[in-house]
Amino acid sequence: MFEEEHLEPQESGEEESRLSDRDALKVDLYFWLQALVMALVGLILVFTFIGRIIGVDGSSMMPTLHDHDMLLLQSIGYTPESGDVVVLSKKSFREGQPIVKRVIAVGGQTVDIDYESNTVYVDGVVLDEPYILEPMRELPSNFATHVVVPEGSIFVMGDNRNNSTDGRSPELGVVDERCVLGRALFVLLPFQDIGPVESISRPA
User: Fold this and answer.
1) Cα 150 off chain centre by
2) Rounded distance, CA 131 to CA 104, Å?
3) Of 68, 71, 116, 129, which sits 20 to 30 A from 55 (CA to CA)?
4) For the chain, how big is the Rg over CA atoms in Å?
5) Are residues 38 and 58 in the same domain?
6) In which domain, by residue range, is 23 found?
7) Co-location of 88 and 182 in the same domain
8) Could you please report the per-residue DSSP string of 80-97?
9) How large is the average pLDDT for residues 76-90?
């Protein structure tokens, strides 16, 4: 009798312990589910109000950006400005594949390129370009050296001027602003280079 009476509270204690473990598991699952929902909502807000994520393909923007960098773009409410690094897609150029370039001039401005002095002029003013990889070499004769940018368009070049098919080439030329997918704001990958695009300084 005494043994049976003594066993009953032990069984009750074990049952309470199992119930307590289940409750803790439920709390943990609820916490992680809540965290997942918050993360998904955050991603939706980023894509809705900021832009999109896109990868760099090629070396035309070195040393500012490298091949396979992942970028966060500002798309909503963005108007291209000189000096911005942008991602654009022009149907007549490489089947509309997105490319990354730097805005050199906007509508109504005039661009002149002097390869001998490694100088780019916009409306007669020399651009300060600490971001370019190396001095420019003269490219094929069909590459433009004088461009008047129409209103509603932009003229772009790569920071790796000697290895960039950009606005100087008849293949691309000036680009309608509506072809711009967004401004490159942040490098997301690789992790060691994460940060605002314009603040990143890396060797080629």
Assistant:
1) 26
2) 12
3) 129
4) 28
5) no
6) 1-49
7) yes
8) --TT-EEEE--TTSGGG-
9) 93
Percent of the chain with pLDDT over 70: 79
One domain, residues 118 and 151 = yes
Find the mean pLDDT for residues 24-49.
Answer: 68
Q: What is the C-alpha to C-alpha distance for residues 109 and 145, in angstroms, rounded to an integer? A: 14
Task: Kindly give the pairing relationship between strand 146-148 and strand 110-114.
Answer: antiparallel
Tokens of 42: 């955050």
Q: 59 and 14 in one domain?
A: no
pLDDT value of position 5: 47
pTM (whole model) above 0.90? no
Domain count for the chain, please give it.
2
In one-letter notation, the amino acid at residue 204 is A
Active-site entry in 60, 90, 153, 164: 60
Least confident of 32-36, 55-59, 68-72, 155-159: 32-36
Residue 37 and residue 129 share a domain: no
Task: Output phi, psi for 137, to 5 deg.
Answer: -100, 150
* Mean pLDDT, rounded, of the chain: 84
- Residue 137 in tokens: 């070499």
Of 90, 101, 153, 164, the active-site residue reads: 101
**174 and 137 together in one domain:** yes
Catalytic-residue membership of 82: no
| CA–CA distances in Å: residue 113 to residues 97, 144, 172 | 26, 8, 17
Residue 204 lies in a domain: no
DSSP-assigned letter for residue 28: H
Which letter does DSSP use for residue 71 in this model?
A: E
The token pair at 72 is 């966060």
Mark whether 15 and 66 lie in a shared domain. Answer: no
- Residue 30 confidence (pLDDT): 74
Residue 123 in domain? yes
